[in-house]
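During data preparation, a discrete fold description was generated, and the record follows.
___
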Amino acid sequence: MSRVEYQAYGRRRAATVGACVLALLCLAWPLAAGGQRVPTDTGRAIAPRAIAPRVTPTVTAREWMTLGVFAIGTAAVAPFDSHLAHEMERPSIHRNRALVHTAAGFRAAGDPGALLVSVGAYALGRVTGHAGAADGGLHATEAVLLSGATTAILKSVVGRARPYVVKNDDPHVFRPLRPTAGYASFPSGHTTVAFAAASAWQAEFTRSDWAHSPFVRDHPWVGRAVAPVLFGSAALVGVSRMYHDAHWGSDVVAGAGIGTVVGAIVVRRAHAGTAGRIDRWLLPSLAWSSAEDGVVVGWKRGF
């Protein structure tokens, strides 16, 4: 390969990776940007007060729409699955040690990183008495576990062959209901939990006091950077799975959609006045509403 050809190939490679990341960001962004910016007290217990009972839908129209957009994105990427897989398997990019280590790092950031960071934030919040960290960590953990379980079920039902099983040639090989490691490609589990954590943390940030603090008001770029950093990192987790020949492009887009919506649902319902038993037990410093009697009950429990 001549120098000119090598440079052209390098540009195509960068464009491929950039297009994957940009596509995932563009799909995830509407839901993230649409989150309610409702300041809450994250530093002390909330005084009991009367509230009106409310009905919280499991999935809102906006969330259904977001799932639909990701479904369209998955279908749009699917015809290019084999081409993208072959691009990601070029020997030159696997000889680059920086890329090898970076891809391994983002793979670990997705799983187990997303879960470890979320659990760690919850534990830190409880130990230090920071209700906001405990709240965000718990809900991100719930989002990661719920989205991961959803993905595990889909993998078993769909039974799609991973790229390395079919030499990146045929993304249409399926063995449904016969789960094995080589036939668990759709959707990408690492991508799912990465986007679930990103979506949950983004939603928690928009509800936090810090998002409306004087520091963020004086430095608005800080608040604007949260979503790009979270979802950009999650997108790179998906790209790393393609780099490791473990997933097709459409697997990654589908996983991003599931994670984004699950994260949003978990946080929305947790803050809608209908907290579940897990939140009532593990976030004792907060007050929760009761849909039956329309009052808020505050209580405290130690470790």
